[in-house]
Design brief:
Layout lengths: L7 E3 L4 E2 L4 E2 L24 E3 L4 E2 L4 E2 L4 E2 L4 E2 L4 E2 L7 E5 L2 E6 L2
Parallel strand pairs: 1-4, 2-5, 3-6, 4-7, 5-8, 6-9, 8-10
Antiparallel strand pairs: 10-11
Family: Belongs to the transferase hexapeptide repeat family.
Organism: Domibacillus enclensis
Protein name: Hexapeptide repeat of succinyl-transferase
Length: about 100
């Protein structure tokens, strides 16, 4: 299901570990002549966490990412791209560790 820009949608039966951060925008840093402080924020992108997934402690989910059905994000991981259904990912940036069957 699609969500509007800048929303975080968490479906049912999702586990969220302590210290998890979910972001829908980031600082701009395109203009080298201007301090990042003054450049504002990027366009908001929604995040979707699908049913039955598990976000391990201190995971970071970046703007525009979808975490798939029953997917697992290992503790301390930084998720920069979508995670497919039934997949275990981990690391910085995350990589597929294995497919869950």
């Amino acid at each position: 299901m699609a969500t509007k820009n800048g929303q975080i949608k968490i479906e049912k039966d999702v586990l969220v570990g302590s210290g998890v951060h979910i972001y829908v925008s980031n600082h701009k840093f395109d203009d080298l002549s201007l301090a990042i402080y003054y450049q504002g924020h990027s366009e908001e992108k929604s995040v979707l966490i699908k049913e039955g997934s598990w976000l391990g402690a201190n995971a970071i989910i970046l703007p525009g990412v979808t975490i798939g059905l029953n997917a697992v994000v290992a503790a301390g991981s930084i998720v920069t791209k979508d995670v497919q259904d039934f997949t275990l990912v981990g690391g910085n940036p995350t990589k597929i560790i294995r497919i869950l069957d």
